[in-house]
Amino acid sequence: MLDQFRINPKNTNMSLQVIKDRIDKGYELQEFEKDTLNKEEQLKYNDAIIIAPDYQREYRSSAADESSLIESILLGIPIPPIFLASQRIKGVPVLNVVDGQHRLRAFYRYLTNEFKLKDLGILEDGYEGKYFSDLEVEEMNIIQSSDISTITFRDFPGENFELEIFSRYNRGTKPLTPQEIRHAVYSSKVNDMVNEFCKNLLNEKEDEFLLKLKSAYAVSKERYQKKKVQESIFVILSILENGIEQDSKKSPEYAESYMKEKSSLEKGKDDGYINNALSITKNKFNKFNKIIDKLGNSTKNPFSKEIYGISSRGNKFQVSISMILASVFNAIEGKVDIEYLMKDEVFANFHSKVSESLANSYLEDPNYNASTTNPDKIKDLTKEIVDILDF
């Protein structure tokens, strides 16, 4: 029985020039719009390197960190091995980067003149501030011909094994955030939806609706890269669909159970089932965001104390308030039509009563010192708000 689970890794060395060429092919392959390639194309892109599979963390190395890696190459200091795993994209066997994305990106970015060396520890004199193209030919050759050790897994029993290896390996190296590990392990269409939504908000510059949501969810580069925004949205989605869970005392537990549930539900299901379930989730989230957008007309940060007239003091997104608003939505969704709620007079009454209830709740009780995400407190407050709204 053990044989079916053994992954038989293969150790090989690749020069940085070969790695760069394979990464280039990986980028090219991912840009293809057609789903199948002819024989010549399949041979051309065989073993292309996919530098950032969906489960990988966002790239957040500094120029100094990248420069340190280049300095190590120039000095001949060994670089830790890169872990690769075979997969197929558009019918072509490719190699996903399971671990080593930051190292490979640094090498690739330097070889393509995307940054200059900075804050070097040993080679400062003569190398500080130099792009790859500024180096002498001999120095360029040293970098291009330097071998990097790679460990390639070609016999995975499936993607879940690949994700499990990724998760286990990263627990023992530079720690991922808990949400980054969830993102790696619990792949699903909902996971893809949330990450695409957050990416769009991060990059949005013009659309008024999305800009208000960007502000509401406090989307910054740092919160996006560490997947804090994504975690907050998974907590909200869990409550929108399932309400407040008595067993979940901390907000990350909502994200954990919800993402695990969605990943498990998709296993063995056909596309029709998966897409229908995704449509239901999207519909709830879109309705909820209409409410948040409308709240954004009067307060820039509706998931903060600003919703009831108190300065947020730098805390633009408070998980407890997002959970309460999601819980209220879960309770009233079947009682009131969203379009009716969006009418100015109706919504003004809704906003006023929600704000008043929040201001008079345990959130502002000076004698309350327990968790603001306490499920009993949120359930009681939700019931109070729903009773007052009387939909």
What's the layout of helices and strands?
Blueprint: E1 10-15, H1 16-31, H2 39-45, E2 48-50, H3 63-75, E3 82-89, E4 92-99, H4 101-111, H5 124-127, H6 137-145, E5 147-153, H7 159-171, H8 178-185, H9 189-203, H10 208-216, H11 221-225, H12 228-242, H13 251-266, H14 271-295, H15 319-332, H16 338-341, H17 344-359, H18 375-389
Parallel strand pairs: 2-4, 3-5
Antiparallel strand pairs: 1-5, 3-4
Pfam families: GmrSD_N
Protein name: GmrSD restriction endonucleases N-terminal domain-containing protein
Domain GmrSD restriction endonucleases N-terminal: 46-186
Explain what the structure shows:
The protein has 391 residues and is α/β, with parallel strands linked by helices. It folds into 2 domains: 2-171, no CATH class; 178-389, no CATH class. It contains 18 helices and 5 strands. It has a 5-stranded mixed sheet with strand order 1-5-3-4-2. Helix 12 packs parallel to helix 15 and helix 15 (319-332) packs across helix 18 (375-389). The chain is elongated. The model has no long low-confidence stretch (mean pLDDT 87).
